[in-house]
Amino acid sequence: MRLGTFALKSTLKKRIKKGKEDPERIHERMGKYKKERPEGPMAWVHAASVGEAQSALILIDTILETYQDAHILVTTGTVTSASLMEQRLPARAFHQYYPLDHPGWVSDFLDHWKPDTILWLESELWPNMLTEIRSRDIPCALVNAKLSEKSLKNWKIAPKQAKKILSAFQLILTQTQNDADHYAQLGATQAHVTGNLKYSAAPLPYDEKERTRIENAAENRHIWLYASTHDGEEDIACRIHKHLSKSIDGLLTIIVPRHPERRKQIEPLGEKYGVTMKFRGGAKQLPSDDTDVYVADTIGELGLFYRLSPIACIGRSLSNDGGGGHNPIEAAQLDCAILYGPKIQNLAEIYAEFDEASAALCVKNETELQTRVEKLLADTEGCHVLQNRALSFVQNKSNGLNKLMELLSDNLAPLRSERERQEQENKLWQSGT
Questions:
Q1: 208-396: CATH homologous superfamily?
Q2: For the whole model, what pTM was predicted?
Q3: What CA–CA distance (Å, rounded) separates 429 from 433?
Q4: Domain range 11-196+399-425, its CATH number among 1.10.490.10, 3.40.50.11720, 3.40.1280.10, 3.30.870.10
Q5: Is 71 in contact with 417 (CB distance < 8 Å)?
Q6: Percent share of the chain, pLDDT over 90
Q7: Where are the domains of the chain?
Q8: Are 89 and 63 in contact (CB under 8 A)?
């Protein structure tokens, strides 16, 4: 135990040095919390990082509308997702960091918060926490769950352990039938397909005044966006800009890095590729007439830049880190023509659905991306067609939330306060049922 504690604390110290932890709140990662638990019924929603946190917001809003005396504790494990949650959580919901999976720390976490029900969103399955939840008999559901072939093979190495961990969930709501089948192979008996919650999420918010400011600053300029970029993709954007600017007057390339703290890595690229680069930063600077590449190194403004740009290439699909992909649904909801690279293994099902609906275009490499961007910038009508296909596709897929809430009704029942229970009994009595 002492050795494990020492190792985890050393890990946290290293992560602080790398900017991956908030030093002011590091105690939360060790199961110690300064904030008091609110009175009354409370759900705990765990979403590992930014993608899951975005998906959780529509579910959180719906639960709070349904159970009006309840509160929701939302946990995530990354600095970026914490910042996002602080900005976007509604009243009666609040964010705290998830503790590392140390037996004592997870026990302290549950002792402090005493959740009445728990929802985990497509997250890593931490054994110590789930074992403790099971021993305390707290209602728990795995929501928006997925399980790849690779993960299934890994879990099959220890089938008894897998079945024990999954027994913490009374309900598993999966994104696809394949996911449900995979969980069933591991012994899960309560797996149901509800579709991907990402399709039901509200569009990313944006500041209309900021949109107007940037539009005025970039008036009459051709714009394209490289969104949620990772290492290597900022280089691609700069090289494409350098080439296309020879034939497209007034081209403005916008980059939104997935991790704004990578600014120091991105800054030298302006000189390297001979492009004038401006960073938005905390002062929210605007692009000037001579700005070639505008880098939005801010948090929580991706919706603004999707709304500004008619064309968006989704990041981590051509990156140097092996890729994995990011969510294209957010871009589609805000009327973008969507491009993406081949490295989208983490979201393969979603991209396959987009492909089937001809709602996005895959580019094999940088050269193809450059060609597609150039054609879309030149062909306004063709760009509109792709924009409309993407928007119609995601709108038609956005009806899964009602089914999910219906299946969760028993798990969410502990959130009904005494006042709400009494009101429900009175209604039933008055109706004679």
A1: Glycogen Phosphorylase B; (3.40.50.2000)
A2: 0.78
A3: 6
A4: 3.40.50.11720
A5: no
A6: 81
A7: 11-196+399-425, 208-396
A8: no
